[in-house]
Design a protein that fits this description.
The protein is of the alpha+beta class. Helix content is 34%, strand content 20%.
C-alpha cells in the first residue's frame, strides 16, 4: 500500500477469522485503501514519527453487520479505517491538518482515563470533499 502500511493490516479481522468469513476486498476497495493510505495515514505516520495501528480497516458486508457497523459505512468500500498510536493527542493534531472526510474521536468516559483518546475513525473520499463529520464518541 505505502511504506508503512500493508494490505494485511486493513483486512485483518478477528470476527471474520472466528466465523470463517472471507474479508477480502476487491480491486475497487484496494484502490480506495491505497488512497486512504497515501492521503491520510502515510502523511500522519511521517509527521508523528511513530507507528500507527489499524484496528479496523476494510469490512465485508457480513463482517460489518456482525460488528455493528453502520449501513453504508465507508469501511465497506475501503475509504475508512479506525486507528490508534502511542501518542493519540499528537496524532489528533496531525489528523486535523489532513483532508479527512470523517474524523471521529473515540474517548474513554471511565474514571481512570476519562477524556483520553482511545482511537480514531478516519476516512478519505476524494480531493473535492471537505471535512463533514468531525465529532467525539464516548466509549
Amino acid at each position: 500500500m505505502t511504506e508503512h502500511f500493508t494490505l494485511e493490516e486493513f483486512v485483518r479481522s478477528t470476527t471474520a477469522k472466528m466465523r470463517g468469513i472471507d474479508n477480502t476486498p476487491g480491486a475497487f476497495e484496494i484502490a480506495n485503501l491505497r488512497l486512504l493510505c497515501k492521503k491520510i495515514l502515510e502523511p500522519a505516520r511521517l509527521e508523528i514519527g511513530m507507528p500507527i495501528t489499524v484496528t479496523s480497516g476494510f469490512r465485508s458486508q457480513r463482517v460489518n453487520k456482525i460488528v455493528g457497523g453502520v449501513r453504508g459505512s465507508l469501511h465497506l468500500i475501503g475509504k475508512a479505517a479506525d486507528i490508534t498510536c502511542s501518542d493519540n493527542a499528537r496524532l489528533y493534531e496531525v489528523l486535523q491538518t489532513l483532508p479527512c472526510f470523517e474524523l471521529i474521536t473515540y474517548r474513554y468516559k471511565g474514571p481512570m482515563l476519562s477524556g483520553s483518546i482511545n482511537r480514531f475513525h478516519v476516512s478519505y473520499t476524494g480531493p473535492a470533499d471537505k471535512a463533514e463529520r468531525w465529532f467525539t464518541k464516548w466509549v
